[in-house]
Amino acid sequence: MTPEQLSFPQPRRLSFAAADFHEGTASETARSLLAGTEAWPRGKLVLVGESGSGKTHLAHIWAAAHKGALIDVDALVTRATTPVVVDGADYVAGRPEAEETLFHLHNNLAALGLPLLLTARSAPAQWGITLPDLRSRMEATTVAQIEPPDDATLAAILGKLMEDRQLNPAPGLAVYLTRRMGRSYGEAGRIVAALDTLSLAEKRSITTALAARVLDASGE
Question: Is the C or the N end of the chain the one with fewer CB within 10 Å?
Fold first, then answer.
């Protein structure tokens, strides 16, 4: 890679294809529950995981498999005629209009017998929903938890994040990082972003030496 190529940021190419999801042990239980949609109690499920854990990726895969619509809190509707994913559903909390809309969408899908998948950073009991009827419905929803990453999952996520940014790391860099970094999905995202920024600023390739500086700066 030449300095000229390193001088300009490459656009991110996010892929939510099923083939690009790492099927590690951290998401095994969640994937099993997603695969058994017909067995969801009351036809609904909340997929919970920390930021960067892959819950939105899994939501895209599920929506594609069920010919459903994936929407976020800012695009909520009261009625639908297909299965629905509400991505980031916990962000409705404390927003009366959004809570009301999600309440009506929930009831509409239940009446039609259509499944509802919601993603969130925590279980519904922790969202702080103020609308009593919605709170009771959300808290009665089965939760599928994405667990903290193991080594293989963390390495795979680092690789995908770097691929999304069109970075070309030195061989073995993901393994090098997993042995030294904090064990969280969010930390993986922060480290890759920092590598991207530093390599661009210094017009350098992404090597273990560069990664060591990023880890030192983050206190790892």
Answer: N
